[in-house]
Amino acid sequence: MNSTNNQKIPHIVVLGAGFGGVYVTKKMLHAVRAGLIDVTIVNRTNYFLFTPLLHEVATGALSPTCVAEPLREVFHGTKVRVVQGNVDSINTANKTVTISGNPIAYDSLVIATGAETNYYGIAGAQENTLPLKNLYDAARIRSVIIDRFEKAATTKDKSEKESLLSFAVVGGGATGVEMAAELAEFVAGISERYYSIHDCTPEIAKVSIVDTGPELLQMFAPSLRKAAENRLIKAGVAVYHNSAVTSVTPEGLTLANSTTIPAKTVIWSAGVKAIIPKFEDIQPTLVKGRISVNNFFQMLNSENVISDIFVLGDVASYPTPLPMLAQVAEGQAATVAKNICAQVSGRPLAGFTYKSKGSMVSVGQWFAIGEIFSMKISGRITWWMWRTVYLFKFASFKKRVRIMFEWTLELFFPRDITKIIN
Ligand SMILES: Cc1cc2nc3c(=O)[nH]c(=O)nc-3n(C[C@H](O)[C@H](O)[C@H](O)COP(=O)(O)OP(=O)(O)OC[C@H]3O[C@@H](n4cnc5c(N)ncnc54)[C@H](O)[C@@H]3O)c2cc1C
Questions:
Q1: Residue 148: its H or E element
Q2: What percentage of residues in the chain have a pLDDT greater than 90?
Q3: pLDDT at site 4
Q4: Ligand 1 center to residue 59 CA distance, Å?
Q5: Residues whose CB falls within 8 Å of the CB of residue 314, separated by 6 or more in sequence, listed in order
Q6: 270: pLDDT confidence band, cut at 50, 70 and 90?
Q7: Closest Cα to atom 3, ligand 1: which residue?
């Protein structure tokens, strides 16, 4: 507890500044302003990352800083303390959390550490593929793609060119489809404009998407799945269904039926697993690798409720199973914030019901599919809606203007092929 004018103010420590952590903190700001609580938010990076637009960074449609908002800007003018550091461990008996070697005392703890790429133990997957989970991943993918073209431009051997310019995306969920569609457009655009002089033409560069299921985007209605797939095929993407990847080498993918897909560059969007912080004294109950919580988002440890630890977002397993989505984490944040404030003032806690606001997936430039209030929509207007919705998710006006500016530039000019990472 911190002390102000001899009054003890509960100290709430939020671990993770993604959709769960940032929104829970925002929803508690009124209590911070009223002097009822102190809040510290801890994150590995000093920014909030807007993951839904990462594929645009990976394909040069947006520059990296467009999709990241500095936490000190997000909480500017509030009394929220921002700490950049790694969550090393939690001690529930002492009520401390160690951040990069430094213990911080808490009265209530919020765990919102999200998830990381899951390779499911597939041979060679971690070593030979590129994940798309953070800003560095996105910048690296873009640089690797450009590097493949630069190398292909210097070889005369046609089969070597084809090999260098073979790209694959593993995972036919929303992230995989968005990535494959943008990748196809990026690759076609830069090969035609910059590299066809070296015989690296759009016909030579190949993009594939590989998924275990019978169709891509299984969470959408069949008509929308079909529309998305047709769009991918039109963009030149080879779609592999019912194709479980069993191993990955530097040359490509091997499937369960022993066929191989050549791919020098593989982007891994096949799934994620929760990041569970280390506990020094207890073990949280895990359900499918996520921390089990009760209806109020309090952490469960065997039969016990750890009433001062709340867990939300991708890392939490709610009694009603919920998808690992930003909008789920954002929705949960409102209830968690309300419950923390209620607990501090001795009021009863509330449960949570998830109401989907609908989902949209972009399939390259000028096309998206979506299901909103059970309406099935697709096409250019859906794509425009997709962009508009995401634009208004950014807190700072400066970021919105910057993104709008870059999107507008992109309509009239080719994508930038400056290779930043070597
Ligand atoms: C490429 C991509 C596209 C996506 N697109 C969509 C979309 O279009 N719509 C949608 O609804 N969802 C989308 N998602 C899913 C969405 O990003 C997650 O569901 C959401 O971010 C979960 O929020 P969270 O707060 O649980 O975790 P996160 O937002 O991942 O935040 C976790 C935070 O904790 C930090 N952290 C983790 N471990 C530590 C540690 N040990 N120490 C310090 N800090 C730590 C991380 O750095 C991160 O900032 C996408 C995800 C990806 C990867």
A1: helix 135-154
A2: 95
A3: 47
A4: 20
A5: 20, 114, 115, 272, 274, 290, 324, 329
A6: very high
A7: 52
Q: Answer positive or negative: Cα dihedral of 110, 358, 239, 419.
A: negative
74, HSE (Cβ side, Cα atoms, 13 Å): 27
Assess whether the C-beta atom of 331 lies below 6 angstroms from ligand 1: no
pLDDT at 303: 75
- Cα 43 from Cα 20, distance rounded (Å): 12
Q: How is domain 2-44+85-117+272-344 classified at the CATH fold level?
A: FAD/NAD(P)-binding domain (3.50.50)
In the chain, where the domains are located: 2-44+85-117+272-344, 125-270
User: Alpha helices, DSSP H only, in 165-315?
Assistant: 174-190, 222-234
Task: Check if the beta carbon of residue 107 is closer than 8 Å to that of residue 10.
Answer: yes
Q: What is the pLDDT of residue 19?
A: 97
Evaluate: CB of 21 within 6 angstroms of ligand 1: yes
Query: Of 113, 386, 387, which is best to mutate to test ligand 1, by the most ligand atoms within 8 angstroms of its C-beta?
Result: 113
Pairwise CA distance, residues 53 & 390, whole Å: 8
pLDDT bin (cut points 50, 70, 90) of residue 6 is low
Whether 18 lines ligand 1, by a CB cut-off of 6 Å, is: yes
Nearest CA to ligand 1 atom 15: 325
User: What percent of the chain lies above the pLDDT cut of 70?
Assistant: 98
pLDDT tens figures, 172-230: 999 999 999 999 999 999 999 999 999 999 999 999 999 999 999 999 999 999 999 99
CATH of domain 125-270: 3.50.50.100
Q: What string of DSSP letters covers 54-118?
A: HHHHHTTSS-GGGGEEEHHHHTTTS--EEEES-EEEEETTTTEEEETTEEEE-SEEEE---EEE-
Report the chain's mean pLDDT, rounded to a whole number: 96
Instruction: List CB contacts of 197: < 8 A, sequence separation 6 or more.
Output: none
Which residues share a beta bridge with 384? none
Instruction: Give the pLDDT score at 201.
Output: 94
Burial letters 8-34, b for 16+ CB under 10 A, else e: ebbbbbbbbbbbbbbbbbbbbbebbee
